[in-house]
Every structure is written in C-alpha cells, then in structure tokens.
Write a structure and sequence with these properties.
Blueprint lengths: L1 E11 L5 E11 L3 E5 L6 H9 L6 E6 L2 E2 L10 E4 L11 H11 L4 H14 L15 H13 L5 E5 L7 H18 L2 E6 L2 H7 L2 E6 L2 E6 L1 H6 L2
Parallel strand pairs: 3-8, 3-9, 6-7, 7-8
Antiparallel strand pairs: 1-2, 1-4, 4-5, 9-10
Helix pairs in contact: 2-3, 2-4, 3-4, 4-5
The structure holds adenosine-5'-diphosphate (2 copies).
Protein name: Glycerol-3-phosphate transporter ATP-binding subunit
GO cellular component, one term: ATP-binding cassette (ABC) transporter complex, substrate-binding subunit-containing
Organism: Stenotrophomonas humi
C-alpha cells in the first residue's frame, strides 16, 4: 500500500506562480524517497503540502488510506525536520526532546521512554543535560532529528536537513539518516538540491524541473540513463 500518494496535485500560489503542475506519484510504506532538482523547482512546496503547511490548489493527497487535503498539520501523522534546527536555547537536550510531548499531554513515563529512545538512536545519550550552545552544528542537527523522532510519526519529512552543515558533518549526518531509516523502517521524504546526496541516500528519486516531474527511478537506473 502506498504511504503517501499524490493524484494530480497542483499548487498555484496567490501571486499566480504555478509551483507544482499536476504531480501524480506514490511513495511506498517504508520507502526513503528523495525529491531533487534546482532551487525553485517545487521540492519544498511538495513537502510542505504533505506537512499541511501549504494548501493544495487541485488534486488529492493521501497519507495511508486517508485523503488529507483538508486535514490540519497537527492531525497528520508526520514530523518535519527543517534546515534551520530551531532548538530552544535555554533548554537542555532532554528538555528540547521532551517539550512537544509534554505539551501534548503525554505521561511522564512515556515522555521519558521516547526521549531515551531517540537519544539512543541518535547517539545523544551522554548529552541529555547539555545546552545547545555547547554543542556542534552536527550535534544540534541530531537533536532536531530527535525532536521529530520522539513524535513517532508514520512519515518523516526532511527539508534540506544538511544544508547548514560543513562538508564533513554533512557526510556523517547523512550516514546517520540512512542508518536511522534502516533501523526504523519509517517512510521518509527527503528534499535536496544536491544530486550526490540524492543518489547516495534515495531508494528512489523524483527529479523535478520547474514544477514538473521529469523522472522517478532508483539511483541505479538514473545513473545508467541520466
Ligand atoms: P524549491 O524547494 O525547489 O526551491 P519551492 O517549492 O520553494 O522550490 O518554490 C517553487 C516555486 O514557487 C518557485 O518559483 C518559488 O519562487 C515559488 N514560491 C514558493 N513559495 C512561494 C510563495 N509563498 N508565494 C509565491 N511563490 C512562491
Ligand atoms: P513542538 O514545537 O515542541 O514540537 P508540539 O509538538 O506541541 O511542540 O507542536 C506544536 C504544533 O507543531 C503541532 O501542531 C504539531 O503538530 C506541530 N509540530 C511540532 N513539531 C513538528 C514537526 N517536527 N513536524 C511537523 N509538525 C510539527
């Protein structure tokens, strides 16, 4: 069964800009799908529509067996990781991870279980009492990943999560994201403008240009027929 399904999805912004021209494709349950293309091709718009942060102008978008066109972001079973890891500066790692869950009224034991689990999955266990300012960029981005992880969503949305990191860190965080995907088996949609990142990370890749899907294929197939 498809986990995320676009059926003739179109996005026209208020100023008349057509960002996505009738996209139809499916992302399988557990798949890591990368959306790639140059700046302005519509990647973020597609992702933000899955998150519910942009209205859909036409077509239908489904998550699981539910059409989500009119479902509010908080009622979608997704979590998004942004390129600017906005951590709360005055809170420790543990508090940053726990904050959203507490707001949502999860019980203390459940919050602790999820925070411990995310910290272990991301190698942050020894940093739970650390403040963000005492951490490296890569560690902070891991906390940002952790804040999405504790929500235990059905679908992870990652919008250029490596773009604020230097080349070396980019490589290690990219490897961690791949490992995380293998460990969790959760559906992931990953947006990047970097072709190398797309080819190394994606199980399949959607190639976009000016709001139109050019190709959808595995890295191997795209490599053979660029
Ligand atoms: P990408 O993520 O590939 O860089 P975007 O999805 O951000 O592309 O943008 C796709 C197109 O839609 C671009 O032409 C961009 O300028 C335009 N766009 C994005 N956001 C808005 C907006 N809020 N209002 C009007 N046009 C927008
Ligand atoms: P926090 O911002 O600390 O995560 P909440 O979990 O209460 O706090 O989230 C507030 C709102 O933002 C909710 O509507 C929630 O659905 C949404 N939200 C929070 N984190 C994410 C995320 N990583 N991805 C998508 N939506 C999120």
């Amino acid at each position: 069964m498809a986990k995320v399904r676009f059926d003739g999805v179109r996005k026209v912004y208020d100023n008349g800009q057509v960002a996505v021209h009738g996209a139809s494709f499916e992302i399988a349950d557990g798949e890591l799908m990368v959306l790639v293309g140059p700046s302005g091709c519509g990647k973020s718009t597609l992702l933000r529509m899955v998150a519910g942060l942009e209205e859909i102008s036409a077509g239908t978008l489904s998550i699981g067996d539910r059409v989500v066109n009119d479902v509010a972001p908080k009622d979608r079973d997704i979590a998004m990781v942004f390129q600017n890891y906005a951590l709360y500066p005055h809170m420790t790692v543990a508090e940053n991870l726990a904050f959203g869950l507490k707001l949502r009224g999860h019980e203390k034991a459940e919050v602790q279980r999820r925070v411990q689990g995310a910290a272990e999955a991301l190698g942050l266990t020894s940093m739970l009492d650390t403040l963000p300012r005492a951490m490296s960029g890569g560690q902070r981005q891991r906390v940002a990943l952790g804040r999405a992880l504790v929500r235990e969503p059905e679908v992870f949305l990652l919008d250029e999560p490596l773009s604020n990191l230097d080349a070396k860190l980019r490589h290690s965080v990219r490897t961690e994201i791949a490992q995380l995907h293998r460990k969790l088996g959760t559906t992931m949609i990953y947006v990047t403008h970097d072709q190398v990142e797309a080819m190394t990370l994606g199980q399949r890749i959607v190639v976009l240009s000016e709001g139109v899907i050019q190709q959808i294929d595995t890295p191997m197939a795209l490599y053979d027929r660029p």
